[in-house]
Design brief:
mainly alpha, 249 residues, elongated
Length: 249
Amino acid sequence: MQREEKQLEATLHAILNRVNDLKTAIQALISKLENEYETINWPTFLDNYAILSGHLTGLSKILQSEVAPSLRSVVVLPLQLGCERDEALARLTEGRVPACTHDLVPDLLRTKPEPQAEQRLQQFNHKASTLSHDTAQKQVAQFTKVISHVWEIISKGREDWEGESMRSAGMQPTHSIADTHALVTAVGTGKGLRPGMPSMGPSGVGAPGLGPSRGPAPQLGPATAAMPKAPSAIKTNIKAANQIHPYQR
């Protein structure tokens, strides 16, 4: 009898440790969802969920262990019921159960779902078992179509939101697509240029569409520049060297 009590105590201690680890992991996940909902990504959420799954797997192994005594033969019952606050119970449950009242005990000691929930679950199971394969495939296809439509709406709304965020932040675009197309058209076809503006091609004649030609190119020597020298517009008056300077003494 004493050996079984020690095994029961060790099992309950291991279960309590696993439950505390599971509770800590759940609190960490809830904290991330509440405080980091803008930056958390799907891989991070899956990592936290994997931690929860690991704790649940460890708890199941403890309950299914052959060394652990069968907890089904252990009876749990309240020793005292009352509406007054129990400090020891509140400290043990971290403030979740301040008193062991008559309304609370049935929920704490319940081993089956509530009758209403159990009845609804049975109805859902019966409906799922009587559903034909073709009807189920049609419902799955319809559900997938609805999800795809919702995803498109969310993606479009996200793009609009990002554009509004950029505009609200004062980030004006630094280029104009219309100006870029006009510049490319002017370089390629000469559209938008003045008719009297010449343009020399590689053969010395005017390029098509860029203005009138000025005739054949002049013959240039090897040391001569490729472009003809423009006449100077500055008039220079050369005076004789023997001219008397007005300020000469």
